[in-house]
Design a protein that fits this description.
It is found in: Cell membrane. One of its GO terms (cellular component) is plasma membrane. The protein is mainly alpha-helical. It folds into two domains: 70 residues; 150 residues, Periplasmic binding protein-like II (D-Maltodextrin-Binding Protein, domain 2, 3-Layer(aba) Sandwich), CATH 3.40.190.10. The protein has nine helices and two strands. Helix 3 crosses helix 4. The relative contact order is 0.10.
């Protein structure tokens, strides 16, 4: 009974996992992206993201910048300043293209579809600020202004406006189902094996008890016949 129930439940979950249509990402990190020979990536020219990539000493970001330089030799639009050019290349059928830049999340949330997706948010870890010279007379005024904007809730309202999710409702649902793995099959086989071994052990005990009762009954009958 244990094996039958477990196998039935597992087969139901397995069928659901195999029939569920899932979109498989071609890559899940920048490390995987740079290994793909048929993919290109671009960035807006004269942007902060370009300066970060150009001056970074991080190994993976150096590879990204090297790729940008290589692509730019035959494709000048790699450094196009218009973000729409990069987005259109992403959405072009058959085009394998990635855009690097700040504000990618706002671009996705303000669309009316689920076509764009963030794969690796490495650039979102960099903070931006308004810089002034040391001991500048503008510093107190800037600090006072930013404090007032924060206290009045303007910065919070601005953030909520920029990052407001305007996508359709089905785009906001996250798929929490993980793909079927070898460990799942091994786990099911192990559980079924344990259940089968338990069932055999219980069966052996029951047979031993039946044999013991039968032997005891025959022994009692034999003693009774001798006494008679």
């Amino acid at each position: 009974m244990f094996c039958v129930v477990l196998t039935g439940v597992y087969m139901g979950n397995l069928t659901a996992a195999l029939t569920d249509t899932k979109y498989h990402k071609p890559f899940n990190s920048l490390e995987e992206l740079v290994q793909l020979p048929d993919w290109k990536w671009g960035i807006r020219g004269y942007s902060l993201a370009k300066k970060i990539l150009r001056n970074s000493k991080n190994n993976i970001m150096m590879k990204i910048w090297k790729g940008l330089q290589q692509f730019n030799k035959t494709d000048p639009s790699i450094f196009d300043t218009d973000i729409n050019v990069h987005v259109n290349r992403i959405l072009t059928e058959g085009e394998k293209y990635v855009y690097f830049g700040f504000g990618a999340e706002s671009q996705i949330l303000n669309r009316n579809d689920c076509a764009l997706q963030i794969v690796d948010s490495i650039l979102s870890n960099f903070q931006t600020a308004i810089a002034v010279t040391k001991n500048s007379y503008l510093k107190p005024d800037l600090e006072s202004t930013m404090a007032k904007l924060s206290d009045t809730g303007f910065l919070t309202m601005l953030d909520e406006t920029i990052y407001k999710d305007n996508r359709p409702q089905h785009c906001k649902k996250r798929d929490t189902k993980r793909p079927l793995r070898v460990e799942d099959v091994l786990g099911a086989v192990s559980s079924a094996s344990v259940g089968l071994a338990t069932a055999i052990f219980v069966l052996i005990i029951e047979k031993c008890q039946q044999y013991y009762k039968l032997s005891l009954h025959q022994f009692n009958e034999y003693n009774f016949s001798i006494k008679r």
